[in-house]
Write a structure and sequence with these properties.
469 residues, Helix Hairpins, BirA Bifunctional Protein, domain 2, 2 domains, 14 helices, 41% helix, RNA-binding
Length: 469
RNA sequence: GGAGAGGUGGCAGAGCGGUUGAAUGCGCCGGAUUCGAAAUCCGGUAUGGACUUCGUGUUCAUCGGGGGUUCGAAUCCCCCCCUCUCCGCCA
């Protein structure tokens, strides 16, 4: 959520920001509703003040009168009753006005909230302006020793690559037909060594972040309340992407949603909390099953492990102080962790600076990391794929946008902790999403004989197995 | 799933229709005392919003959440959520 005060003072900043992100949001309407709402609230507040003042007087008078009333008889009783009635009548008019203003406020609220939650965080000035993913800018590439990124897979390795789908079939790593039988399109079953490799990557990723980089490993819910989805910024914009468990339909108190990323659970942990400044930065890593409806992606990446409804992801988040320089520094570090991770897996990758049009509502900046997937891309005349980079990671810098929604603050003032409260900054980045990460692992580490070498760093997690097939 | 008890400030715990944003204790902060500390004593100690002559000050909301009754609700009623105890079931 953006800062409403800042929006009032600098509406153009948000108009421009939304435009650069290719998002339609009616700022003028929001400001109009805000004015109406504030007028009503302000008037209501002064009426309440009057009501409270009267109430205090009334309380002191009515008590004794009620006592007298019990004992009194005849005319005396009638007189006291009239006095009591008169005292009671005074605030009645106020009550009606307050009620009427409340109705005005209630009528404004739904539309107001809807628009407010939809106003995107303006992208940083140094984020290149663009319309879509096509305008993203490559920052740099890395390739392992012995791999020439300018040459084809065949030229590099001396044989034509198989796609991960072919490898999975031949090596018995994935059972797609039975996955579809069980759960429909975009479903799969990891089998045998496929499952072992999947678990190995995830476990290695957790250890890498916890042991090497000092992140605290966590296990968090993947079925959460709507507040967590709204708080983390996935709702209302991404409502279509989430599976919805309609518990209210069976009489329970609230509906639940399946999370599409561990970020929801990790960031939701400290919702409505005031953290100690000394506890920052908080660094969490989790592995969680992620659920995505992939609404609107019909027909896209339908085959293989690339775009699926359910997968497991190791995710890193950082919650730090409200300081742009610190946020930027953490962003660099979190990307660095992933680079070191991918380099240890010997996977060619590139960094993409996402343009404004490719950013979501909640980020000021986003760097995607794409791994080289030899089995992707348009096949040549012989049916051999040309290879293509495929997105495997996404690193976002959100400043206080997410923490504002989550109402997550910290108290400054050092040890004494007497300072003002401030919204935290937050960042998140993938560490490893599997089975998608298996695509570059299988395809890049395949051998001429159709086997796949297990990357060295994963062997300890595979009981020392060096080769599949 | 069944039966019962309960959710109040950082924590413990009173209040159960009237001037109560809320007693008391602990904790925490400041001060006094002390060579220093402990103990003791004094004072302070929620969050968010609105207005402000930006020094403050004034004010509204918040006692699990929502709705209702009332001139007035932490206190009464309804719904929901959560916690605890016992039984059942289960990984």
């Amino acid at each position: 959520m953006i800062d409403l005060k800042d929006l009032r003072e600098n509406p153009d900043r948000y108009r421009t920001g939304a435009a650069r992100k290719q998002m339609a949001v009616d700022i003028d309407r929001l400001l109009e509703l805000d004015t109406k709402r504030r007028e009503a609230l302000s008037e209501q507040e002064s009426l309440r003040a009057e009501q409270n003042r009267l109430s205090k007087e009334t309380g002191a008078k009515i008590g004794p009168l009620m006592g007298q009333l019990k004992k009194a008889e005849g005319d005396e009783r009638t007189r006291i009753q009239a006095e009591v009635d008169a005292i009671k009548a005074a605030p009645a008019a106020l009550k009606e006005k307050i009620q009427s203003l409340q109705e005005t406020i209630d009528a404004i609220k739904p539309e107001f909230d809807e628009i407010l939650l939809s106003v995107p965080l303006p992208p940083d000035e140094d984020v290149p302006v663009g319309e879509s993913a096509d305008d993203n800018i490559e920052l740099r590439r890395w390739s392992p020793d012995g791999w020439d990124a300018d040459k084809s897979f065949h030229e590099n390795r001396g044989f034509k690559p198989l796609t991960h789908i072919e490898l999975c079939d031949r090596l018995g790593l994935v059972d797609f037909p039975r996955g579809v039988k069980l759960a429909g399109t975009r479903s799969y079953v990891l089998t045998g060594m496929g499952m072992r490799l999947h678990q190995a990557v995830l476990r290695y990723a957790i250890d890498f972040m916890a042991d090497t980089n000092g992140f605290t490993p966590m296990s968090v819910p993947v079925i959460v309340k709507e507040e967590a989805m709204v708080g983390t910024g996935f709702f209302p914009a991404g409502r279509d992407q989430a599976y919805h468990i309609e518990e209210t339909a069976r009489g329970s108190g609230h509906d639940l949603f399946l999370t599409g990323t561990g970020e929801v659970g990790l960031m939701g942990l400290h919702q409505d909390e005031i953290l100690d400044e000394a506890s920052l930065p908080i660094r969490y890593v989790t592995v969680s099953t992620c659920f995505r409806r992939e609404a609107g992606a019909a027909g896209k990446d339908t085959a293989g492990l690339y775009r699926i409804h359910q997968f497991d992801k190791v995710e890193q988040v950082v919650i730090c102080k409200n300081d742009e320089a610190e946020s930027r520094e953490w962003h660099r570090k979190m990307i660095g962790f992933v680079e070191a991770f991918l380099q240890s897996l010997e996977l060619p990758y590139r960094l993409l600076q996402c343009c404004t049009g490719d950013l979501g509502v909640k980020n000021a900046d986003m760097i995607d990391i794409e791994c080289w997937m030899p089995g992707r891309g348009e096949p040549d005349a012989d049916g051999v794929p040309s290879g293509e980079f495929g997105e495997t990671h996404s690193a976002s810098r959100l400043y206080d946008y997410q923490c504002r929604r989550l109402n997550m603050r910290y108290r400054g003032g050092g040890e004494a902790g007497q300072g003002a409260t401030t919204f935290c900054h937050s960042l998140n980045n993938t560490v490893a999403a599997s089975p998608r990460i298996l695509i570059p692992i299988l395809e890049n580490h395949q051998n001429a004989d159709g086997s796949v070498s297990v990357p060295r760093v994963l062997r300890p997690y595979m009981n020392g197995i060096e080769r599949i097939g």
